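It is worth pausing here to work through a concrete case rather than discussing structure prediction in the abstract. The textbook approach is simple: state the sequence, then state the predicted structure, then interpret. We follow exactly that order.
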Amino acid sequence: MDTASDQPLAVLTPGCKVNLHLRIGPKREDGYHELETFFYPLPEPHDVLTIRTGTAGGGCVFSCDPLLPGDGPNLVERAYAEYAKASGFAPDIAVHLEKRIPAGAGLGGGSSDAAAMLRWLEYAAGDKALGETHLARIAVGLGADVPFFLLGEPAWAGGVGDELTPAQMDWGSMTLLLLDPHVHVSTGWAYGAWDGYVMENPAQRIPLTSKAAEHKKTLFPAGTVLGNDFERVVFSGFPALRRLKESLLAEGASVALLSGSGACLFGLFRSPEQAKKAGQRISATPPPGIERLDILCMLEA
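Step two, the predicted structure:
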C-alpha cells in the first residue's frame, strides 16, 4: 500500500477525439495546413497520466508504458518545458503515462496528453499561472489538436486547428462505433501524400470558406457534409482501411469515416443494437489485410 508521501499529486485521464468533418486547405509558410474540421471528444479510450512528486532539482522525469515510437521528447515533456519557460513554474515531478489510446490512429492521443499536462500545470502554478490566452498560444505551438483538447468540448476548428468555435452535436438517435485496425498511419506521411495528390489534381485547391456564425452552432449546418479529405490518399496507401470502411457500410452504418489521418475508423448507426452486432461481426472476421480489430468505443446518443 502506498504511504501518504507516495500518493499521486494527480491522476489524469485524457480522452481522445474523432473528426466528423475534415477538409484540408493550402499549406502555409510555417509548414502547417489550413483546416476546416469538426472535433468531437470521446471519453474512451483514454490514457492515464499519473503525476507524483519528483526528486529535488530533477524537473520533469517522464516514463511511459508501453514505450512510444519515435525519438526525442514526448509531447507531455514538451508541454512541461514550454510551460516552465513561459511561467517560471517548473515543479519537480515524475510523470508516468499509461498509453491506452493507440498511436498513429487519428484520435489525437498525444495532443490530449499534452493538453492535460498544460491544464494541470496551470492549476498547480498558483500566482504563476499564465491565463487562458497564453496557455492557448503554448498549445498551438505543440500541435494542431492541442488547443481543442484544452477547450474540452465539441467544436468547429479553422486555421491550423487553433481557431475554435464551440458547437453542439445533434446525434439524433445515432450510436458511434469506433474501431482500431492496429495499423499505424503517420500524420506526416498523410499530409505529404495529400500535397502530392493536390499537385496532381489542381482542382482540389479550393479555398476554405468561413461558416456564418449561425451555422457553427451544430454539426449539420446547411451545406455541410460529413467527410474526410485524408481518405483520398490514406485509402490508396492502406487499402485494407478502405475495405474496413466498406464493411461498416455493409453492416448498416449510415456514415463511416476515417478519423483524422487514421488509422481508426468509426461508423454511425441507427441503434445501439445495430452498432453492437456490426462491431461483433466485423471484429470476428476483419476484412483482408487487417489481422486484428478492436472495438474502442460505442457511444450512444
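Step three, interpretation. The helical segments are 75-87, 109-124, 132-142, 146-151, 187-200, 231-237, 239-250, 272-284. The domain at 4-166 is CATH 3.30.230.10 (Ribosomal Protein S5; domain 2).
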